[in-house]
Amino acid sequence: MLDEARITCKLAARGITPDARQRDAIAALVSLAGTQRARQAKAGGASASQGVYCYGLPGRGKSLVVDTAFELANCRKRRLHFHEFLREMNRRLVSEPRGGDRLGSVSRQWLDGVELLCFDEFHVHDIADAFLMGRFLDTAIAQGTRIVLTSNYAPNALLPDPEFHERFLPTIAQIERCFTVIHFDGARDYRFGGEEAEVPRFFAPLDTTSQHALRRIFTHHEGNRTVEPVTLSAAGRPLAARAAGAALLWADFDALCVASRSHLDYLDLAEQWRGLILDNLHTSRLTQAHTLQRLVWLIDIFYDRKRALFVASDQPLAAALSGLEGAHDLSRTLSRLAQMQSRTYHSTLEGGDHAATNDAIGS
């Protein structure tokens, strides 16, 4: 049985003493996990506490607390990044016969057997995603699925585009009515201030020293595999890479982020390889909004999958990103980059692929 003491103990093992808002979230998660799956169609309406919505600035411990509770919860559960959810739903919609409530039908299929659902980094910036998410939440709540969302956005800040925001207000009202909403407002970003990794992962400038370091990293993980150019597939589209091993991909920034690509490409790469060497990053390219957004997506997805990331750029990446505009959730990217360079970031490249796969249904 899930209880607050077990969650607190697991956090203490990682050196975390929960602050006030984290304790509120733990209590809400324990309460949610203790409720039985409710078939709302029979019960006569949605429960007032069918979910937990944790929001706040990056690095405040939202995912840490939620993931800890999720790991301990004993039920049929699923946790995944919001990008992955959108990909799965759109794939199902393509094959769903036309007519009737296609989105509702696909939502019910997707939710089948899931008692506890966790979306990490929940966000809505696009009106098409907003429509999909609104119908999906309607279905999940009607079926009594317990839902946990983590986000950098307060519910009322979702879909901030003033042209479309009003159309998402019914879903926002539903979240505020059916979820316990907790604002993680602590001052500390837990991802900053950690000890740097023993072996550096980010290199600047773009010189022979950086190139030799990247080659050593590739050779360390891939042995005697030849470093030679290769053309691969990312989400069905060709990608020219410097080298590809069994675990590690080595590619240039222009091919990955300047070229026209989407989050689907990065999801595919994170599924094929446990680490990425992102080479030849000229930070002047980041002033282009589309290029910057692609880098944000790439870092988000590789961080969520606990993939290794090695970067060679003409100047330190964090400094180049600070103060830039043109991409959603850039502050989260800076927070994640800080952790990805620290000793506390343990990637699947280092530990093999035996790391827990939270996106699978399990008990």
TrEMBL record:
GO CC annotation, single: cell division site
Keywords, alphabetical: ATP-binding, Cell cycle, Cell division, Nucleotide-binding
Entry keyword annotation includes Cell cycle: yes
Gene Ontology molecular-function annotations: ATP binding; ATP hydrolysis activity
One record GO biological process: cell division
Keyword Ion transport annotated: no
Organism of origin: Paraburkholderia fynbosensis
Organism domain of life: Bacteria
Gene: zapE_2
Protein name: Cell division protein ZapE
